[in-house]
Amino acid sequence: MGTATFVNPGRSTSRPARGRQNFLWGIDLVLVGVTLALSLFGVIMVYSAGPLFAIMADEQPEFFLYRQIMWVGVGLVAMVVASFVSYRFFPKLIVPIMLVTIVTLAATVLFGEATLGAQRSLFGASVRPSELAKLAIIIYVSVWLHSKRDVLKHFSFGLIPLMLILGFLAGLIMLQPDLSAAFTVIILGVLMFILADGEWRQVALVLIVALAVGFLTVNIYDTGKQRVMDYIIGLQDPTSASDHVRRALGAIINGGFFGTGIGLGSAKFILPVAHTDSIFAVVAEETGLLGSGLLLVAYMLILWRGLTIARNAPDQLGRLLAAGVSMWIVIEALINMAVMVSLMPQAGNALPFISYGGSSLVVTMAGMGILLNVGRAATQHQATEGINTFGAVVDLRWRDGRRRVPRSGRQSSTRS
């Protein structure tokens, strides 16, 4: 039997004891820690930003705090379940998942609760199906691309069916209208098509079509047109930007490096929906550049660990799921932050884990559970082969399903 070493551990030391292996083995503690830390920080910031809006809604000042704590609990349950139910069952579950998504999106268009001129919620604004659609499209496209991987380079078998899938869901979301969620769905689908080794000429065509559709959509909807005009005016002269942007920038400037202190900021009293879409401005004012920077680092940790898990995943389905979930969360965060500093037009994206909202929080934590699930499978696969699971993230396009960079921990093929 081979001798184990620190550099090249033998099989006898590459696996933990059976008791540990049954429950916690393979859990990515970095991801768990970041998720819990962000969720706790989100509760604190909702507690700071929410009382005024609770009173305006004829509720007790702690209303949003208690609701956020409840949704964190539900989200943790969803994360635990998703982390222990193997992602390899998704091909069997994808039809029910998509049916639920389509039915709820259609019900929202027909019977949804109207808020700020849009019908985006069901059951008294408690459920927002467009948030479910973001995770559902990641799962569906991952399963679909994995099953069609041999014919993706064929135009009629690869690009056209994918665009029909994305276009149908995005169309239902646009009818609400929720332009930011619709564009997020399309962006995620295109990114995953690229990661699945979609043909570059097809990708270029998709981008051209998406830009054309986006331009037409923005000009059709008055809300989209107004947001783009406000953004352009704000770029030319920040003092002439929309009230939302000027108040957000004022909050960020007022925060300085260390911030005013949690609960001591004033921008939350004048920002629209400070506890949801505008919460990053509250974070920047009350925790300063230091707190905002740490928040950005937390999202970058999610991206790093997510792409590392994707790189180490034992199959293409796991790679697509892990890459899709991690990029989705970080894209949402970057869009929200960019809007608050006037780098993008108003989008309406929630800040993952931080903004108040049950649908966004629960779905995001379920996505983290899927990421942990793929990580468990990757750890088991790597331990079986004796490979270092903390390897670098490179070349995620996996053209032939083989790893591009050899790992120093790989077992020797010769065994004694």
Annotate the secondary structure layout:
Elements: H1 11-14, H2 18-23, H3 29-49, H4 51-56, H5 63-84, H6 90-111, E1 113-115, E2 118-121, H7 129-147, H8 159-174, H9 179-195, H10 200-220, H11 222-236, H12 243-255, H13 279-312, H14 316-340, H15 358-385
Antiparallel strand pairs: 1-2
Report what the structure shows:
With 416 residues, the protein is mostly helical. Helices cover 65% and strands 2% of the residues. The protein is built from 15 helices and 2 strands. The chain has helices spanning 11-14, 18-23, 29-49, 51-56, 63-84, 90-111, 129-147, 159-174, 179-195, 200-220, 222-236, 243-255, 279-312, 316-340, 358-385; strands at residues 113-115, 118-121. Strands 1-2 form a two-stranded antiparallel sheet. A hairpin with a 2-residue loop joins strand 1 (113-115) and strand 2. Helix 7 packs parallel to helix 9 (179-195). Residues 1-20 and 389-416 have low confidence and may be disordered.
